[in-house]
Design a protein that fits this description.
The structure is a homodimer of 243-residue chains. By secondary structure, chain A is of the alpha/beta class. The first copy, chain A, folds into two domains: 106 residues, 3-Layer(aba) Sandwich (Cobalt-precorrin-4 Transmethylase, domain 1); 125 residues, Methyltransferase, Cobalt-precorrin-4 Transmethylase, Domain 2, CATH 3.30.950.10. The first copy, chain A, has eight helices and 13 strands. In chain A, the strands form three sheets. The first copy, chain A, has a five-stranded parallel beta sheet, with helices on both faces. In chain A, α6 links the parallel β7 and β8. In chain A, α3 packs across α4. Chain A is elongated. The relative contact order of chain A is 0.14. The interface between A and B is large, with 76 and 76 residues. Chains A, B: Keywords: Cobalamin biosynthesis, Methyltransferase, S-adenosyl-L-methionine, Transferase.
Chain lengths: 243, 243
């Protein structure tokens, strides 16, 4: 029988935003591995579990740790924020897992920031949408630009992950400038900082205003499609052309 | 104080796939309103609640029922499958809610089929992706075609909702033909039927093979991007150009 490893999406932060399947999967494990920030979000119920971490940018080592622990006979979960398969560790686990044919992976989905952030703002993704990360750590910036243009061409509502960081302070501005090539300046937008945490904060603005906003790396940004409206302080994308 | 109404995403089906927040929100309500099929998925814990429904295509009436019940002083939740804000009822509730200024809406997010289906297949949405519905009930087919072309242009991984119905038996074929204008025939794809239910079934195939598959209306289809691979029977999209 293969060693089973679970890759668990824990949602945006607070424990209540986990699915019951995710919670129960973690409870049934011996060892929970994850980035330190996410381990700290786990509550009392998990205090007795073996909790292991590797620093940021040591994702590969974190994955290997999962396989090694599983081979020791531990029941292992790797936790990711949001959904494990949306900019999460799931794909890296499958890639590295090719070297561990005695291990079997299972992904437990979670509420990714596009969904939890959208719920805070109203319903900006209620029709066809794109999810785009502005991080060029693993993707060439030219490809990110191409995707932004394609998203605008297709009149998709857009959720933007990783809109900013210390090294990429002007990336959201650059992304907005690309969208503004074809999208009107008054297009309704919004953003949410620290979704699912105490210090959560949200804002609505136009695309032109968004261009000049400073957002931090814990922010998810939403850009409406041509049918998105502000209704009573909420960002709402219609389901279609009649209701 | 306003009458509070919750619009709750219940995930793909089985109760364990709900977030604890969604579960607790429903438990705290007097009245749960939803499409009959979704009400039936609720377990014993909700048997004592007032459960109300309207038939398919009477979504507007279902929303109005929520507001009327809330005005009667009931604590009301409207349930949607997946996420309430992804092709769900959230935006319609905000639109109709303009006529009920004494009511306040709150969206409780859930695991939409793009995420739960992706977890079944592996990690097909582990980088930038689009979600597109093939239903032309509320969207002109020309717009759907435009979005499919834009998604292919942008090299997005794609999750397709509503790929088929009795009246639209050839829509998935038509969508694949549009993608095949620019995407290679061997592009790895997959699909999942009845996610989160006992009779769930999944398949991997190429884009050319997908074109000729018959899928039912309870299926979510995934089309890889140019970096998607099959790894040990799973559909995996790399996080970027180096790992």
């Amino acid at each position: 029988m293969k060693h089973k490893i679970y890759i668990v999406g824990m949602g945006p932060g607070e424990e209540a935003m986990m699915t019951m399947q995710a919670y129960d999967t973690l409870l049934a494990c011996d060892t929970i591995i994850g980035y330190q920030v996410y381990l700290k979000l786990l509550g009392e119920a998990f205090a007795e579990k073996e909790q292991l971490s590797t620093p940021m940018k040591q994702e590969r080592e974190r994955c290997i740790l999962c396989f090694e622990k599983a081979r020791e006979g531990k029941k292992v979960s790797l936790i990711c924020s949001g959904d494990a398969g949306v900019y999460g560790m799931a794909s890296l686990m499958y890639e590295i897992g090719e070297s561990y044919p005695d291990c079997e992976l299972s992904v437990v989905p979670g509420v990714t920031a596009a969904l939890s952030g959208a719920a805070c703002l109203g319903a900006p993704l209620n029709h066809d949408f794109c999810v785009i990360s502005l991080s060029d750590l693993l993707t060439p910036w030219e490809k990110i630009e191409k995707r932004l243009r394609a998203a605008a061409d297709g009149d998709f509502a857009i959720a933007i992950y990783n809109p900013s960081s210390r090294k990429r302070a002007d990336y959201l501005m650059r992304a907005c400038d690309i969208l503004l090539e074809t999208v009107e300046e008054t297009r309704p937008c919004g953003y949410v900082e620290n979704i699912g945490r105490d210090e959560s904060k949200m804002e609505l603005c136009t695309l032109k205003e968004l261009r000049d906003r400073q957002v931090n790396m814990f922010t998810t940004v939403f850009i409406g499609n041509s049918e998105t409206k502000i209704i009573d302080g909420h960002l709402v994308t219609k389901r279609g052309y009649h209701i």
